[in-house]
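Handout, page 2. Input:
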Amino acid sequence: MHSIKAFIITTLSLVLISCGNTQPQKSGLTISTNFEKNIVSIGDDVELTLNNPKDLVISGVDYKFNGEPVEGRFKIDDEKLGVHIITAKVQYDNTFEDITTKITILNNKQPKVYGYKIINEYPHDITSYTQGLEFHDGVLYESTGQYGESKLRKVDYKTGEILNNINLANQYFAEGLTILNDNIYQLTWQENIGFIYDLNSFEKKSSFKYGKSKEGWGICNDGKTIYKSDGTEQIWLLNPETLVEEDKLQAYTNKGKIVELNELEWVNGKIYANRYQKNGVAIINPKNGAIEGVIDFSPLRKLVTQHNGLDVLNGIAYNPETNTLFVTGKRWDKLFEVEILEK
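Output:
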């Protein structure tokens, strides 16, 4: 059994952060906080200090946190985790100057560590470079990657039978998929485009461009909002009608950010995120980005047929009919139905 510290470091490869003041303005004015490197946690009281090395005569200071007015002392409470901007509009010598600094908000609890129990094993196409999995009405839908091999599939998960299949054009590397309002949304990796298909016919209806996110990795939805990962610690919130990225989460633990978030799945009010190349899954609070739990799936890889093309765990699908999780990997010949257990 991994310790919590060892698991987070080795399985999810924690990225520690270092974030401080921006460069001083010509006036020499800067903002500092009562925390080293401006790294704070949920529940902390932040005190802002205006550093004035030139002893300018200051006649007014207005602070803002993410664009909202705050006092010189405020509490970190319901804010989203990650990097945020603090600005100060400073008045001196009949002049107004805007200065900024960054603070990084961490979670105040370490993630719980979960294990699993295998309930069933089902056949899975060993040639599929699995990128996305999702259940809809008891049927499994799968997106597979690689240039020249990318597909969208409807699968009988118990037998492995392919019920429907379309191949993407060779210039596209498919990534995650999600289903909402009788539409299938499928991402591509670096092509900056996502496709929308009719759920029943698999007919391509339209496409959409990405906004601020650089790449397409994983995607899921909660019935109202679409969540999209891009290979960083960021999860983008998309409007399901316009596909515009309207907001974002940053995935953080109590120590730092977790990057390379890949395949996503919505499970009972949480986002489950596969960490690329790490054979682990992070359980993320969709309200603030806090990584509340981690699941170590690394032993599963040894239970599938070993071959030269075998690659990492990837593919998470929650079946609400069985209340169980299904996981597989890239070019794995098995799909595992598992029950999650707290260690």
